[in-house]
Structure formats: structure tokens, C-alpha cells
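FAQ

Q: What does a record look like?
A: Structure on top, sequence underneath. For example:
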């Protein structure tokens, strides 16, 4: 299942694609293809520290689920290039809440998404001195605590997504690739108890 906005193709994960993504390396490979464009199993292997045989096998698993396709405009019989079948993926976890067989894949997928966010933020902080200060006062890492109902949190997320869409456009000279992370979730309070 896909939903599209002009020029973009977003894939909403179904059970088959979710199972295919229930492996940290596959999530990483798909992320690299979606963010950086087509690549070979060998090139991806070097970037993730795996052999080309391992990355090739995982790419075939992603292809079987329809998440990646061969880029027939590149390569040769000896060199296969892969590209994502979509611009982005989306998980509606509520679709899988009542299926105990998918609890593991949902958890694996969500953990890897959060770990990838962390890696991206750490990489930015590590590269900050080399950026010459251009982003020092423009990047934002913010953590806000609110008191909301589930419906209010959902509406806030819709509004945040609409705002982000307002800024989506094709890359132009001078642009940087910018990651906008958004999350809204409840936190369980754990107050200190009196002794």
C-alpha cells in the first residue's frame, strides 16, 4: 500500500514488508538507499561493514518484499545496482497491535528507527566543527514535555507533519540534506515514593 504526494511515493508497511524489515541490517540498507540513492551490494557492504554477499542476500530479501528494485539504468551483468521502490516508509503500528506474530517485527523495526535517529544526531554533532559554524545556531534539538490527551497528541503530530510537508521540495544548489525528526509519545511517570 502506498500513499503519494506530488513527486513522492510513501509506502505504508504491511505485514510482508514489516517482516522483511525486521532485521537491523535491512533497515539500514533501505535507509541508505532512500537517503543517498542507488548503490551496489559491494558499495553498501563497505558503508555498513559487511561483505557484499551478506548485503546482496539482504537486498534480495528487501526486493522480495517490494521495498527495493534493481536500477536497470545502471550497472552491468556483473554489477547490480539497487534503488528503493519508494521515497519513504511509514509504519502504522495500530495496524499490527492485535497480531501477536508481528509484535517482534514491530518492536525490531521501531527500535532500529530510533537507533538510526540517534546515529544521525551523533554524526551531526561530530561533524559540527567542520561545518564552520553554519549550522551551529540553526540546528535544533528540543525536548518538550506536554500534558495532552491521545487525540491532542495525534492532532499535534498531524499539524507538525503538515508543516514539514510545507518545506519539502527538490534539492537546489546550496542546500544541505536536512533531517527532521518528529515524535510524540506518552511517558510513564515514576515519582519517588516515600519510605
Amino acid at each position: 500500500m502506498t500513499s503519494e504526494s506530488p513527486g513522492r511515493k510513501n509506502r505504508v508497511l504491511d505485514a510482508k514488508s514489516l517482516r522483511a524489515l525486521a532485521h537491523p541490517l535491512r533497515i539500514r540498507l533501505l535507509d541508505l538507499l532512500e537517503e543517498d540513492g542507488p548503490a551496489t551490494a559491494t558499495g553498501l557492504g563497505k558503508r555498513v561493514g559487511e561483505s557484499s554477499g551478506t548485503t546482496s542476500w539482504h537486498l534480495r530479501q528487501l526486493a522480495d518484499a517490494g521495498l527495493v528494485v534493481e536500477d536497470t539504468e545502471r550497472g552491468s551483468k556483473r554489477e547490480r545496482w539497487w534503488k528503493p521502490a519508494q521515497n519513504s516508509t511509514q509504519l502504522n503500528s495500530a495496524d499490527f497491535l492485535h497480531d501477536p506474530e508481528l509484535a517482534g517485527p514491530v518492536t525490531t523495526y521501531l527500535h532500529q528507527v530510533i537507533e538510526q535517529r540517534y546515529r544521525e544526531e551523533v554524526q551531526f554533532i561530530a561533524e559540527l566543527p567542520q561545518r564552520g559554524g553554519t549550522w551551529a545556531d540553526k540546528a535544533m534539538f528540543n525536548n518538550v514535555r506536554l500534558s495532552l490527551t491521545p487525540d491532542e497528541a495525534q492532532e499535534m503530530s498531524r499539524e507538525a507533519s503538515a508543516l514539514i510537508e510545507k518545506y519539502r521540495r527538490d534539492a537546489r544548489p546550496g542546500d544541505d540534506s536536512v533531517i527532521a525528526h518528529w515524535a510524540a509519545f506518552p511517558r510513564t511517570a515514576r515519582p519517588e515514593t516515600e519510605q
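Q: Is there anything notable about this one?
A: Helices lie at 15-20, 24-36, 41-48, 52-64, 103-127, 150-166.
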